[in-house]
Amino acid sequence: MRVLVVEDERTLARYLAEGLRGRAMSVDVAHDGTTALDMLTSDTYDLVVLDRDLPGTPGDEVCRQLIAAGGRTRVLMLTAMAEVGERVTGLRLGADDYLGKPFDFEELVARLDALGRRSQPAVPPVLRYGDVALDWSQRQASRDGRPVVLSNKELGVLAALMTANGAVVSAEELLRGVWDEHADPFTNAVRMTMHRLRAKLGEPWVIETLPGAGYRMAGLPC
């Protein structure tokens, strides 16, 4: 999943970004509402973690404009204003969920996972393709019942390919969805990650390379 963290407290923003990247999510960061709107206009995100109290454009207005523009992006409001009235106001603006500060990081991850499953098309908690399974909530993969230990990037790439359900996913799409906005478009990171992922999943190979097009899961899904 690709996540935009909009938080003006830089220490907290860095903590969130590093923690979510550690859960195999692709994370970009904005420190004010105006920058967030620019990023949301120019790129696509599955989820936004949005602080209400932002410099520049307020978080409420960011939410309002994002919802008005349509699209699939889900919004989790994260703010110190945790009273019931404030939560109701945030939800009525169009936010999908609301979490007050201070918060438990594991709860935040669980809420983001749940929002990701509510996106269109919905993503089930356990992805399956042939004899490959990926439990996204636990970040655990297996093949034919055998556990396969994967890095965060490998998990993200496998999730993107399995979600595509046999359709081709380009290297550019993988860079955008699994890495972040700072990824070098000329890097060989995708190719090297794909090489390691194939080796860990073992033979017969379950990931095909289509020269000039991208990658896809081989064979038929379950």
Compile the SSE list and pairings.
Elements: E1 2-6, H1 10-21, E2 26-30, H2 33-42, E3 47-50, H3 59-68, E4 74-79, H4 84-92, E5 97-100, H5 105-118, E6 126-129, E7 132-135, E8 140-143, E9 146-148, H6 152-164, H7 171-178, H8 189-201, E10 207-210, E11 214-217
CATH class of the largest domain: Alpha Beta
CATH architecture of the largest domain, by name, is: 3-Layer(aba) Sandwich
The total of helices stands at 8
Assess the beta-strand content as a share of residues.
15-25%
Query: Widest sheet: strand order?
Result: 2-1-3-4-5
Estimate the helix proportion, in percent.
40-55%
Q: What is the C-alpha radius of gyration, as a whole number of Å?
A: 18 Å
Round the mean pLDDT to the nearest integer and report it. 85
According to CATH, what is the topology of the largest domain? Rossmann fold
Weakly predicted, low-confidence segments: none
Structural class: alpha/beta
